[in-house]
Sequence to fold (171 residues):
Amino acid sequence: MHRERDYLLEILQELVRNNVDFIVCGGVAAVLHGVERLTMDLDLSLKMSGDNLKAFLQVMKKEEMIPRAPIPAESILDPDIRRAIVEGKGALVFTFIDTNNPFKQVDFFLTEDNGYEQLVDDTTSITVDDMTIKVVSVDKLIEMKYAVDPIRDKDKRDILELERLKELNRG
Fold:
């Protein structure tokens, strides 16, 4: 990972250090699979157990990250509140930001479609900086990118590049 993105690596290290069960998705997953592109935010699928979410919140606090939405971070511990956010706001992710660094952002999926339990069997382990992390598989990442509605140009580029990398690895 490049110097300007060290904060992504720091967040991943803290998550591993604090034994948070997570799966890397989105642009960072694409980069870890070999796609050359710049990404600023970290998309995660978290195991939604209370202990895991508490460990995640400790990492967010250590990283000086707060919810983008004007609600207390601890709100995510309540499954009813998470469900209300999805149903009432149509939110697919819950975002934490660093108000001192607008590029430092962590999104975690709120919906079961991209939930930890749904994705965990569709992951690969990738070693980064002496730590092993779960990353959504190339095929599942392509499927997730196709599911973005409306599909964005960066998702289309990622899909093309991921398909190309799949072909290279087959050959």
